[in-house]
Design a protein that fits this description.
about 425 residues; alpha/beta; Rossmann fold; 2 domains; 6-stranded mixed beta sheet; 5-stranded parallel beta sheet; globular
Length: about 425
């Protein structure tokens, strides 16, 4: 493998268009007077895909990383036969993020959150002394925990107690990874609040969520995989969304690929879906509102408990922010769809029967939305369709293995004391 040389890039504020240098962990343009995402503008305008042994970093031309970490795998795109035939689609392409050796997919956390974790942690300075903080509904925490444990990067995770079953691993993690929780009954938003209290300490720094260009550009590798495999930009992009960050990333990748010039100039329609009854972005989109509509906290927690795809239960997504999901949907002529638990379970069964792999509930939500869109006559049978399977192969990977679960070092009430959170989390890394 050739010596890794980071690609050069600048940052651009979506709202103002101001271009400026990255200080290494810039999450926003502090001169901008309105909430806005910033984007990476890479010096290399044409993507040079590296050999397979680079893992995720085969797309490093368009990743804001300082170094390559060990253990990564890239998304794998292949042309569907079974599901495509069942749906009557001539050009259905599946981008599989998970464990599916039959197609070459080798993400051992079985989720596309690995694409974020290897990119974000690769962006971090090797000399960074502070502890990275990540709040998660489950899959993101599993991915960051694996990457940080394997590469000796200190990490504080904040996850709801009800989602701890997602924190399974093939082997015990190193002590550089610690977990805190909000008590039972809390959701993803409570986990975010808890992490924000810890972040009041100078010992910690925020991963940044959707505002981190490395997170979005890591997720964008799903589209880079699809387009470089298919040879063109798809007409439709299907994915389930909790925060919508993956769909924003897909739109941004689309813009870069148009600029590349080799894959067409079309904008793929973003067809994103939520799991009913937790559908705040669907409600806002149907009302054509850039602002999220009021959503009672208790009702949101109850709705989050009901849905199968717990990872889709984000109450404060980057929806209305400049460059966020609302703008992405408007720019691409996209739509927000809704799937019930029953529809998603049926779709998961169909996927396993036709494609040969088990898939996560969120990926089943996306599959169910594709099935419904085809049934409703919204997809021409000759259209080039990308289905982003954001997690799968977990049953296959776990088979015959004795798994290890990460346990919380601290559990806090839903209304925690800020000072107590700060002092106790600091002590975990003393």
């Amino acid at each position: 493998m050739e010596k890794f040389t980071p690609t050069s890039y600048t940052l651009e504020c979506v709202a103002s268009g101001r271009e400026f240098a990255d200080d290494g962990w810039t999450l926003e343009d502090r001169t901008c007077k309105s909430p806005s995402l910033v984007r990476a503008k890479y010096e290399k305008k044409q993507l040079d895909v590296k050999p397979a042994e680079y893992g995720l970093y085969r797309f490093c031309d368009w990743l804001p990383v300082r170094r390559m970490l060990k253990g990564s795998a890239a998304p794998v795109t292949y042309k569907s036969k079974g599901l495509a035939e069942h749906l009557g689609l001539e050009n259905l392409w599946i981008t599989f993020n998970g464990y599916f050796p039959a197609v070459g997919a080798a993400m051992t956390t079985c989720s596309f959150k690995e694409t974020e974790a290897y990119s974000v942690c690769g962006r971090a300075d090797e000399k960074e002394k502070r502890v990275l903080v990540v709040a998660s509904a489950g899959n993101t925490a599993r991915a960051f925990a694996k990457v940080c444990s394997d590469n000796d990067i200190p990490l504080l995770l904040s996850v709801p107690s009800d989602n701890l079953s997602a924190l399974w691993f093939e082997e015990p993690l190193t002590p550089c990874v610690k977990l805190i929780c909000c008590e039972k009954g809390g959701d993803y938003f409570d986990a975010i609040h808890l992490s924000n209290l810890a972040l009041k300490s100078p010992k910690f720094y925020a991963e940044g969520g959707a505002k981190n260009i490395a997170r979005r550009d890591g997720m964008a590798t799903t589209v880079l995989s699809a387009v470089t495999t298919i040879g063109r930009i798809p007409d439709f992009y299907f994915q389930a969304v909790g925060s919508g960050t993956g769909a924003i990333a897909a739109w941004e990748a689309n813009l870069r690929l148009i600029e590349d010039g080799r894959f067409g100039s079309n904008t793929m329609k973003l067809m994103v879906s939520q799991n009913a009854p937790f559908v705040p972005m669907f409600d806002a989109w149907r009302a054509d509102s850039r602002l999220m509509l009021p959503y009672d906290d208790d009702k949101a927690r109850r709705d989050a408990e009901i849905i199968d795809a717990k990872v889709l239960s984000n109450r404060r997504p980057p929806y209305g922010i400049a460059g966020g999901l609302y703008d992405a949907l408007k720019a691409t002529g996209g739509d927000v769809l809704v799937t019930t638990n029953a529809q998603a379970r049926k779709a998961a069964k169909l996927f396993q029967e036709t494609e040969g792999a088990d898939i996560h509930p969120a990926a089943a939500v996306a599959t169910a939305s594709l099935i419904k869109a085809v049934a409703d006559g919204r997809i021409d049978k000759s259209a080039t369709v990308m289905l982003n399977i954001t997690g799968g192969g977990e049953q296959l990977f776990r088979e015959g293995k004795e798994l290890w679960h990460l346990q919380p070092s601290l559990v806090f009430p839903l209304d925690p004391d800020a000072e107590e959170v700060m002092t106790k989390t600091e002590a975990l890394f003393a």
